């Protein structure tokens, strides 16, 4: 059984179709790299999966069970199982690093504070921020803030982590520390869907690469096949341009 299945998924902003029949199956522990030109629907797909943009037609299936996004109870369950990290850090500026990571499990999930704080400290140590528990976001670099955002998502204990251009707003010298954190998660077997313009990283880490254009999946394959020998003309055009620059 696939951990996640996307079957003919469609979504639109008003009259503008942004996802046009996306079909993709993801296995447990797999890392899916999503690439393509701006406006191809990569980030929209991640937003649709967590219900930020309700899908129109099509179906999303988690561990064999269809998801009904317009049912508030099911939507909460989906957000328990899928966590998303955005390009913007979205940290609470008036809270410490530890408070940012623990607030949702304690306040929304109602979990015991002591247990949550112990787990949060472990997560922050894992992402290299054990010495920043009492710091505030404005005392951190961009890379450190993004690592806090990743730890905050992991504190929800998701089955699948969605990463949406998490290095796009960082200075180049800070990108590597965030990518190293994602490598650690990959080594632990976390299922991830990653939208990124860091093509070397996508090639290195992905189990499979999905090339999207115009709201459609154009081609899916192993990283070597997509980057070295793409089958589709549109994929070849894209890869040839990014490899030249």
Give a quick set of tags describing it.
six-stranded mixed sheet, 24% strand, four-stranded antiparallel sheet, single chain, 245 residues, globular, alpha/beta
Summary of the model, kept short:
The chain has 245 residues and is an alpha/beta fold.
Question: What do these coordinates show?
Answer:
It is a single chain. The protein has 245 residues and is of the alpha/beta class. The chain has 9 helices and 10 strands. The chain has helices at 42-49, 72-81, 97-108, 113-126, 142-154, 172-187, 199-205, 223-228, 233-244; strands at residues 4-13, 16-26, 31-35, 59-62, 65-66, 82-85, 160-164, 191-195, 208-213, 216-221. The strands form 2 sheets. A 6-stranded mixed sheet has the order 6-7-8-3-9-10, sandwiched between helices. Strands 2-1-4-5 form a 4-stranded antiparallel sheet, with helices on one face. The longest helix has 16 residues, at 172-187. The radius of gyration is 18 Å and the shape is globular.
Radius of gyration: 18 Å
Strand content: 15-25%
Task: Describe the global form.
Answer: globular
Secondary structure tally: strands = 10
Low-pLDDT stretches are none
How does the SSE layout of this entry go?
Elements: E1 4-13, E2 16-26, E3 31-35, H1 42-49, E4 59-62, E5 65-66, H2 72-81, E6 82-85, H3 97-108, H4 113-126, H5 142-154, E7 160-164, H6 172-187, E8 191-195, H7 199-205, E9 208-213, E10 216-221, H8 223-228, H9 233-244
Parallel strand pairs: 3-8, 3-9, 6-7, 7-8
Antiparallel strand pairs: 1-2, 1-4, 4-5, 9-10
């Amino acid at each position: 059984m696939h951990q996640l299945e996307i079957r003919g998924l469609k979504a639109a902003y008003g009259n503008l179709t942004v996802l046009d029949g996306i079909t993709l199956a993801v296995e447990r522990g797999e890392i899916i790299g999503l690439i393509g030109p701006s406006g191809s629907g990569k980030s929209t797909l991640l937003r649709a999966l967590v219900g930020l943009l309700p899908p129109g037609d099509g179906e999303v299936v988690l561990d064999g069970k269809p998801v009904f996004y317009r049912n508030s109870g099911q939507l909460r369950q989906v957000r328990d199982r899928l966590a998303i990290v955005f390009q913007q850090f979205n940290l609470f500026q008036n809270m410490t690093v530890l408070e940012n990571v623990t607030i949702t499990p304690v306040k929304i999930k109602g979990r015991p504070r002591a247990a949550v704080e112990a787990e949060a400290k472990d997560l922050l140590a894992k992402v290299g921020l054990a010495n920043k528990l009492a710091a505030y976001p404005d005392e951190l670099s961009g890379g450190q803030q993004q690592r806090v955002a990743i730890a905050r998502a992991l504190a929800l204990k998701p089955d699948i982590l969605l990463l949406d251009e998490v290095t796009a707003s960082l200075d180049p010298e800070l990108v590597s520390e965030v990518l190293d954190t994602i490598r650690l998660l990959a080594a632990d077997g976390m299922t991830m869907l990653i939208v990124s313009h860091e093509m070397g990283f996508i090639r290195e880490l992905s189990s499979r690469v999905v090339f999207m254009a115009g709201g459609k999946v154009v081609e899916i394959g192993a990283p070597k096949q997509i980057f070295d020998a793409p089958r589709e003309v549109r994929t070849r055009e894209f890869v040839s341009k990014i490899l030249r620059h």
